[in-house]
Amino acid sequence: MNSPFLIAQISDLHLKADQKLTYGVVDCLGALRRAVDHLNASQPRPDIVVISGDLVDFGRPDEYAVLKRELARLHMPVYLVPGNHDDREQLLAGFTHHRYLPTDANAPLDWVVEDHPVRLIGLDSTRPGAHGGQVLDSQLRWLDEQLSRRPNVPTLLILHHPPFITGIGHMDRESFVNAAALEALVARHPQIERLLCGHLHRPMQRRFGGSLSCVCPGTSHQIVLDLEASAPAHFNLEPAGYLVHRWHPQYGLVTHNAVFGEYAGPYPFYDVHGLID
């Protein structure tokens, strides 16, 4: 297969039920609906969508019911990993039709999908009841085994928490547990093309174990870019965004930052006389 394969990544939906605004300000449901419409109308349309956590705001059954209804509108397969706002038990109860998900809510919701030109591995980085991320030693052993089985297949790791310090003070206060061990594992498996993360509500990138960790912006609100150690926990309503990862077997994986919404343009660079003056 020599045609491109497109993966759209969205993150941090923070859905509520009953049309309730998140933090009393943000219409996360309206934002997700606009995102779904945008992805469905994209030309070319993404082949799949991955969502890197914080699917809902408080992990409640009625919130997952809203999420299920809205994601059913997507015209392509969608794959989920939990974030620190999610509840494993309620997520599994609401998405029993997602057969790639495990069934034990008392263990991390790690999974593998082999159905596409790139291999997808979902890694549950949540610590129940905590804000920060982790991977357990048992998860690292599982991940090492999975990667060792297919060392030549391009692979994406999808997890909620970026396993590194970002410089945004309030988001760094709970460090990622076992980050160094995860980085050492990634370095042993060069087929890992990307680590796809969320949580930070901002686009950012960092080298990680010889691979690249890409953080996706939020579908609605974004965390303020404040690189002071004392940065307060604030957000703003910058343009909502997403990432598009374009895999081609000849040219590799290229990641594009994109935004949701309608903007002026497109305008041409050239007319019949050449470059427009």
Summed up:
The chain has 277 residues and is α/β, with parallel strands linked by helices.
**Poorly predicted residue ranges:** none
Coarse structural class: alpha/beta
Indicate the CATH architecture: 4-Layer Sandwich
Largest sheet: number of strands, sense, barrel closure: 6 strands, mixed
Terminal-residue CA separation: 43 Å
Shape: globular
Q: Roughly what percent helix? A: 10-25%
In CATH, what is the homologous superfamily?
Metallo-dependent phosphatases
Give the CATH class.
Answer: Alpha Beta
Work out the helix count. Answer: 6
Q: How many structural domains can be distinguished in the coordinates?
A: 1
Instruction: Give the beta-strand count.
Output: 15
Strand fraction equals 15-25%
- Read across the widest sheet, the strand sequence of neighbours is 4-5-6-7-9-8
**What Rg is obtained from the alpha carbons, in whole angstroms?**
19 Å
Average per-residue pLDDT, rounded, comes to 96
CATH fold node name: Purple Acid Phosphatase, chain A, domain 2
SSE succession = EHEHEHEEHEHHEEEEEEEEE
